Amino acid sequence: MTERFDFVSELRHADAAIAALGPPPRLGAQIRARLERERTSVTWPFFAIPFAAIAALFVAVSAEPPRSPDVARFTPATCAPASPAPTLSLEPGCSVQLIDPRMKLIALDLTELRRTSEGFVVNVGRVEFNAELTATPFTVYVATRRLEAIAARFEVDGDTVHVHAGRVVVHDGHGGSADLAAGDALSWAEPEKWSNERIEAEVRRTTQLRVDGDYERAVELLEQLLASPIGEDRAAVLSYERASLLETRLGAHERACAQFEKHRARFGRDRYAAAVDAALERCP
Amino acid sequence: MSLNTLQLAADQAPSRTAVDRVERLFERHHADVYRWALRYTAGDGALAEDVAQEVFVALLKTVDRLQDDDDLARWLYRVTANRCLTVLRRRQVRTTVLRALRVAEPTAHVVDDRIAARDTLARVFEAMAELPPKERVVFTMLHVDGLRHTDIARALGYSKGYVSKLVQRATQRIRALGYEVSDD
Question: Are the Cβ atoms of B26 and A35 closer than 8 angstroms?
């Protein structure tokens, strides 16, 4: 005769054992990171928008008729030389002196830029960068292209770069590059930016893959998304998510480190900077 | 950044109060949420972690509409169960019971307890994995949390009759595995 356990008491015992053990220590950190990502991934965090930009936004909203309701502007009169704002929206003629006094930029049309630790991301507009007098390499991201400028003065106009002085190397993100000298110009066909609906659908796919435990495919999909025209704010969220999945779910430490490195290079001191720093310290 | 984006941010971004509240609830309840999820996933630790994350993300988006923290605790309980049912429908459950016991180096005096707990957990989760997800959730709510059929029905959006049927089927399956099921 076999012993017959009372299942209900076993189940309660098991539940008490789980409660006594508690969740894995990493779970709290994972959920906090996820909440932070979700909180900021809806859009750019509202509280991070500098006061001047918010004020300009309300002006733009209330003006009749609105000249261009899509951009919260800095006019030449309000261009602060040392503005700490992470994102700069500049009217034509607005000139910004960078920290290195030998480098500056001038908006040639309505322009929106975001700072990174290495240089700038041009979100929209036409802008001239002048780093002619310094040998410090200077990086500018334009959609899917990365521009490395060395002692250069150059103009970015949508998906075209004109080099007026020095040297600019344009990397296409797939291993290809073009080396431009003074007088050269390069245009590329930038794919049309995806609609919010399409981006949301793709992000939902990654979420589903996570839920299904198919982390390898989630990581692949995130890589494809990062090479797609989805906007830099969204890309930063997905980039960090990819690195986290590689590290915590797949235990693929080398790949995780590579993604954290890419994140730092592309997004600089963004909202994940502290977490990226900590992750890179764990790397060999 | 477009104006529409900014307006969307203002409308959709959780308020500071909401974020603080979620942080407070997270501290208080994340271990419970994980434990509930671990039960319903029959010990699949990775899946339970994912569910716990999803539940708190959902909370962040909903917290402004919930009144007090008691409501929120009930909400977390209900959403965890429903979230587990959703993911289990799509996923073959894998029992990874020992993950639950993977903790820092045990001291000598707790080793025996831990081995005993591991054996119990393994046995229980193995049996629970034999139950379809709905039966597993209902059975646990009834016997571990002591909920009435009516409360279970309300939490899961089922009829009371359907809950009774699920309990009955689960009980039959557990008995078929060689266990007694007490009717307390």
Answer: yes
CB contact at 8 A, B102 and A23:
no
Q: Kindly report the nearest CA distance between residue A269 and chain B, in angstroms.
A: 19
Show residues of chain B in contact with A230, CB under 8 Å.
Answer: none
Radius of gyration in angstroms for the set of CA atoms belonging to chain B, rounded to a whole number: 19
Question: How many whole angstroms separate alpha carbon B36 and alpha carbon B48?
Answer: 8
Instruction: Determine whether the interchain pair B180/A4 forms a contact, defined as Cβ–Cβ distance below 8 Å.
Output: yes
The residue whose two tokens read 């700490």 is A84
A7 close to B181: Cβ distance less than 8 angstroms? yes
For A:181-220, CB contacts with B below 8 A are: 210-213
Mean pLDDT of chain A: 73
**Cβ pair B121:A32 closer than 8 A:** no
Of A186, B162, A263, which is closest to residue B154 (Cα–Cα)?
Answer: B162
Can you give the pTM of this predicted structure?
0.43
Alpha carbon distance A170, A181 (integer Å)? 11
Q: Can you point out the beta strands (E) in chain A?
A: 87-90, 95-97, 104-107, 111-115, 119-124, 126-130, 138-142, 145-157, 160-171, 177-181, 185-187
Structure-block tokens of residue A58 = 């309300």
Pairing type for strands A177-181 and A160-171 reads antiparallel
A88 vs B7: which has the higher pLDDT: A88
Q: What angle do CA B180, B77, B87 make, to 5 degrees?
A: 80
Q: Shortest CA distance to A92 belongs to which of A81, A103, A68, A108?
A: A108
ipTM of the shown complex: 0.73
Output A204 or A100, whichever has higher pLDDT.
A204
Alpha helices in chain B (DSSP H): 3-12, 16-40, 45-62, 69-90, 108-129, 133-143, 149-156, 160-176
